[in-house]
Each structure stands twice: as structure tokens, then as C-alpha cells.
């Protein structure tokens, strides 16, 4: 007679557990893509004509993602694709921008498309106004200003 000690069951369970952990680790490291925004397709853009008003543009291709900073003379449609690798920071792999410019009268004047290669890095500067107050407590400023009071400024000689 052969006696079984149960060692095979533990070894098999351990191997299955290690295999499941390996699969989970591989799945966690696989890239995922997230899509943000909306850009109308070529067919929708070709349906637009120069001189068309804003309302008809919105009706044909939808609301813009944003408008121009200095008014509503430009509609911007923006779509970005970000790739995520596990716990690492997301990376932007694609960006499409459609800019539709309008004349002051409100008609379409230009349609432009841009992608990630057309972008440029804009350096941000931090401008900080220097603090000219020597001692920042409110009570010290109030006490210091008390000596600068001129009562003759309250008397109206007219």
C-alpha cells in the first residue's frame, strides 16, 4: 500500500497561486488607452462651407470643446489619447485639434487641423510680486500708520 501525505495538493495549489499572481502582474502592466474630447470627422468637416454661421456649424458638427480666449471668433475641437502603463504617469500619445475661425460678421473664414507634432512647449514663468512690508502683522502696521495721520486733511477750508 502507498500512503499519500497530501504534499501534491499543496504543491499544486502553490503553483496555481503563483501562476495567477503572474497573470495579474502581466495584466496590470499592459497599456490602456483613454480617449478625451471630440473632433469631427473629415466627412463632417467637408460639409461645412465658408461663410456659414455659428449656429449651423454647431448643428452640423456639435458643440466645440472651447472657444477663443478673446471672444467667440474661433471654435476649437480637441481630442487627446493618453496611454497608461500600470502605476506610471500617463503619456499623451495623440492630440488632434480642429480650429474653425469666424469673421466678425459671424461666418466661417477658415478651418485648420493640427496634431501633436504641431504643438510646441510653452515655458511658464512664475512672476512673484515682492512684499515691501517689513513686518507683516496687522497690529504693527496699524500702530505704525497711527503716526502718519494728518488731522488737517479732515478740515475742509472751502
Task: Describe this structure as you would to a colleague.
The chain has helices spanning 7-29, 42-46, 54-61, 138-146, and strands at residues 31-37, 66-67, 74-85, 91-102, 108-115. It has a domain at 38-119: 2-Layer Sandwich (Beta-lactamase Inhibitory Protein, Chain:B, domain 1), CATH 3.30.1450. It is of the alpha+beta class and 158 residues long.
Uncertain segments of ≥5 residues (pLDDT<50)?
Answer: none
Assign an overall shape. flat
Average of pLDDT: 79
Proportion of beta-strand residues? 25-35%
Residues in helices, as a percent range: 25-40%
Let me know the number of strands: 5
CATH class of the domain at 38-119: Alpha Beta
Query: Quaternary status of these chains?
Result: single chain
What is the element layout, followed by pairings?
Elements: H1 7-29, E1 31-37, H2 42-46, H3 54-61, E2 66-67, E3 74-85, E4 91-102, E5 108-115, H4 138-146
Antiparallel strand pairs: 1-3, 2-3, 3-4, 4-5
Which structural traits does this protein have?
158 residues; alpha+beta; flat
Brief account:
By secondary structure, the protein is of the alpha+beta class. The chain contains 4 helices and 5 strands; from the N terminus they run H-E-H-H-E-E-E-E-H.
Amino acid at each position: 500500500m502507498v500512503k499519500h501525505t497530501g504534499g501534491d495538493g499543496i504543491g499544486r495549489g502553490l503553483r496555481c497561486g503563483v501562476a495567477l499572481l503572474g497573470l495579474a502582474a502581466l495584466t496590470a502592466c499592459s497599456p490602456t488607452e483613454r480617449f478625451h474630447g471630440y473632433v469631427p470627422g473629415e466627412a463632417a468637416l467637408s460639409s461645412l462651407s465658408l461663410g456659414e454661421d455659428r449656429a449651423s456649424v454647431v448643428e452640423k458638427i456639435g458643440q466645440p470643446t472651447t472657444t477663443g480666449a478673446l471672444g467667440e471668433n474661433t471654435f476649437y475641437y480637441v481630442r487627446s489619447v493618453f496611454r497608461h502603463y500600470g502605476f506610471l504617469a500617463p503619456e499623451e500619445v495623440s492630440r488632434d485639434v480642429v480650429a474653425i475661425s469666424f469673421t466678425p460678421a459671424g461666418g466661417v473664414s477658415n478651418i485648420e487641423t493640427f496634431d501633436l507634432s504641431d504643438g510646441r512647449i510653452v515655458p511658464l514663468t512664475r512672476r512673484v510680486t515682492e512684499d515691501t512690508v517689513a513686518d507683516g502683522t496687522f497690529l504693527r502696521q496699524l500702530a505704525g500708520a497711527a503716526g502718519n495721520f494728518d488731522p488737517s486733511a479732515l478740515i475742509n477750508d472751502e
